[in-house]
Amino acid sequence: MKTRLTPRSDKNTPFRQWTGPLTEEIVLRPAEFGLGQLPNPQQPDATTESVCGYCATGCSLKVHLKDSEAFNLSADANYPVNLGMACPKGWESLAPLKATDRATTPLLRDASGKLNPITWEEAMLEMITRFKSIKQRHGGRALSWLSTGQIPSEEMAFLGALCKFGMGMIHGDGNTRQCMATAVAAYKESFGFDAPPYTYQDFEESDVLVFVGSNLCITHPIMWQRVMRNRRNPEIIVLDPRRTETAMAATKHLPLRPKSDLALLYCFARLLVENDWLDNDFIQAHTEGFSELKEFLLNGPYDLATVAELSGLDQGAIFEVARMIGSGKRVSLWWTMGVNQSYEGTRVAQAIINLALLTGNIGKPGTGANSITGQCNAMGSRLFSNSTNLLGGHKFTLAKDRSKIAGILGIEEDCIPQEDSWAYDEILEGVERGEIKGLWIIATNTAHSWINQNRWNKLREQLDFMVVQDMYHTSETAQMADLVLPAAGWGEKEGTFINSERRIGRTRKVSRAPGQALADFHIFQLVAHYWGCGELFNRWNSPEAVFKILTEVSKGQPCDISGIKDYAMIESEGGIQWPLPEGTEAFDTQRRLFADGQFFYPSGRAKLIFEAPRKLPEATDVEYPFTLLTGRGSSSQWHTQTRTGKSDVLRKLYPAKSYIEINPKDAERLGIESESKVVISSRRGEITASAHLTPITPVGSIFAPMHYREVNQLTHSSFDPQSRQPNYKACAVQVCKA
Ligand SMILES: Nc1nc2c(c(=O)[nH]1)N[C@H]1C(S)=C(S)[C@@H](COP(=O)(O)OP(=O)(O)OC[C@H]3O[C@@H](n4cnc5c(=O)[nH]c(N)nc54)[C@H](O)[C@@H]3O)O[C@H]1N2
Ligand SMILES: Nc1nc2c(c(=O)[nH]1)N[C@H]1C(S)=C(S)[C@@H](COP(=O)(O)OP(=O)(O)OC[C@H]3O[C@@H](n4cnc5c(=O)[nH]c(N)nc54)[C@H](O)[C@@H]3O)O[C@H]1N2
Ligand code: SF4
Ligand SMILES: [Mo]
User: Fold this and answer.
1) Of 98, 115, 134, at which residue does a domain stop?
2) Can you tell me the distance from the alpha carbon of 352 to that of 369, in angstroms, rounded to the nearest whole number?
């Protein structure tokens, strides 16, 4: 197809009247574009359902429409995930759509540095001209993209396919690197595929629930409600240096020293071995590496006395928890960012997986080594973003995988790169070295959330052209862009998300995007068209058509969803967990993996993987004596607050300005008064915040919520070598009165 790249003169031409270079296909589908009609105009006052667009719990919300526009929400009582519950963010999810700082037209930075409104056509021409010129001069490796776990799978897949197969990029990654990469790496190595095994029903059917580095009460409040529905009088054990809301509500809190998890988990495993609290039959039949693990545990410094000293915990408490794990009851082990965001997170996650394998706590109700995912569609990104793995969990490096995908998509095999993409930090290093010149950022706010911001600020200057595609023109990253593309958000577009328990759920368009903002899906269609590779995507003409393609690429994979016929089936089933291969006759609403003890390696066995703990990349010292812990501050704040910050209701529920939590003993020693200003400095930067005095935070550590931009000026660029996930949760800082 030949693309005409002639700009039109009339800047105010409404999108749907464009003729120019748009394909007929796009012109004929205005209803699916942001400017078009809402679905279901026949029933303008109906109620419809849509899965929430914040966290990976994946609650279903009932959306009440008036004149086809959403005006109110309530929690869906019939959905198997949330059973009529929702958290404050869910209840308030319509508010961010109406914010006054929505990006409503594309914006281009002029020579004086100001962002000015332009038409979509001008925006596309600018983006394509600049990116093509970079590609001509430096090759496809000089272009890269950074995306997200917060757009539907159909959009992620389109983006990944467009960038790699259409535009010839090699390197792209997403904010899921900041979040889930460790769990992915751990599962892949241990189970042979990235496969969280559980279903939420396990929260209710477990006798012993162990949460490692997870503050479920505020980060996944509806999962916590599921724990509260457990009628088995469970032991709830929390491993977290802070006495969090979750730790307070638990039956046992182990306030371990930051990053002493690995030694502690090995100590539990050693106690299991020493006391023969093992499921020997399971180990024999379904795992490999047991004798090596045993030797490692018994010969290493993982005895009770050494580990108690190292972790700052009581020997009796450690022993008691090991006994509970080895009790033969239904034990489930859950982890989130206290594990993943670490320089040795993959091994910590695998040490958790090992405990489940050693005790046979997998594949049965109330069990599992269960990574809890963060964003609404982080799980979709893990399978379908086409960044670090080829669509559907395939390998770029395997010829047979490339040929399978090329065949299904009807594209030339050599469109598919034969190498893996760089990870987020490697992409930014590529920018630093001047190898990457053009960057496209979609639905993530790098300038706030990426580790060690000083470095990022310098990187921006290295880029020739940076495009940011966001709902808001005010996000820190959009403010640094050369070109801003206005995107529709959750509620303004169609697609599917995959939640933490592998459940695919529907999200719907219930509101019109403002101005000329378009669904990311349509932006990708436009880019494909203007780039001149629209033909590759002829079949990708609606989210549901793309979903069909995803079901095809998944065939034969552990995540096979070829049995899902269409969106209507997902809705009528109350969401569908993967896998669901074609021909599945009947299936349960709650399904877990590995009921047959068969893992995804050819041997069918899971691997017991271990490695000695490493040194902290930046330990505290006399100059920087505090450990900085970072994480979520409240259930009403979402990440960089571009969305939750727009709700009048939510804003009342948390402090407006940056604060830290510090133990009253440390505060007293330093003469810091409650709510007074303090200066926190690290080797990277210095910030000011108010001090909230609370015994939640242990002596020697401070906690800073990640919702305020300041925090990542302090964090230290260190990464887990297996997963390349940033080590957000431990660096050395100094605190003093302002
Ligand atoms: N309200 C709200 N909910 C959210 C989000 C949000 O922004 N706001 N974000 C979503 C996303 S994307 C994610 S990834 C999840 C994150 O969910 P969580 O991981 O539950 O949240 P965090 O607060 O980042 O980290 C959890 C805990 O790890 C602890 N921790 C720090 N260092 C260590 C350590 O060395 N060992 C152990 N054992 N624990 C440690 C911290 O003290 C903290 O309490 O939340 C999701 N849900
Ligand atoms: N210090 C520290 N830093 C952290 C963490 C931590 O614990 N400590 N946690 C890390 C983790 S786990 C995560 S997940 C990241 C999150 O970091 P980010 O991804 O940077 O955070 P968000 O605020 O969710 O950014 C999403 C962006 O996408 C935009 N957006 C929302 N919906 C859409 C859409 O549909 N389309 C488009 N185009 N744009 C949209 C929003 O306006 C926002 O600008 O932060 C990481 N950073
Ligand atoms: S728990 Fe998560 S999915 Fe459920 S309503 Fe809250 S933010 Fe949405
Ligand atoms: Mo996350």
Assistant:
1) 98
2) 6
* Ligand 1 closest atom vs CA 373: 14
Rounded distance between C-alpha atoms, residue 719 and residue 727, angstroms: 5
Residue 32 confidence (pLDDT): 47
CA 337 – ligand 4 centroid, Å: 8
CA 410/CA 423 separation, integer angstroms: 28
Q: Nearest residue CA, atom 17 of ligand 2?
A: 449
The range of the structural domain enclosing residue 240 comes to: 181-371
Ligand number with the minimum distance to the CA of 175: 2
**Cα–Cα dist 230/202, whole Å:** 9
70 and 197 within one domain: no
413-449 per-position pLDDT tens digit: 999 999 999 999 999 999 999 999 999 999 999 999 9
- Read off the pLDDT of each residue in 91-114 and give the average, rounded to a whole number: 96
Cα of 632 from ligand 1 centre, angstroms: 6
Q: Measured from the CA of 51, which atom of ligand 3 is nearest?
A: 3
Residue 468 Cβ < 6 Å to ligand 2? no
Task: Select from 471, 483, 510, 715 the residue to mutate for testing ligand 2; criterion: most ligand atoms less than 8 Å from CB.
Answer: 471
Q: CA separation (Å) from 304 to 314, 319, 352, 615? A: 9, 8, 18, 20
pLDDT per position as a tens digit, 634-679: 999 999 999 999 999 999 999 999 999 999 999 999 999 999 999 9
Predicted confidence (pLDDT) per residue in 473-502, tens digit: 999 999 999 999 999 999 999 999 999 999
For residue 711, give the ligand nearest its CA. Answer: 2
**Does residue 359 sit in the same domain as residue 240?**
yes
487 pocket-lining for ligand 2 (C-beta < 6 Å): yes
- CATH value at residue 305: 3.40.228.10
pTM as predicted:
0.95
User: CA 304, CA 610: separation in Å to the nearest integer?
Assistant: 18
Distance 705 CA to ligand 1 centre (A): 10
Least distant ligand from the CA of 373: 1
CA distance 237 to 214: 11
pLDDT interval class at 458 (50, 70, 90): confident
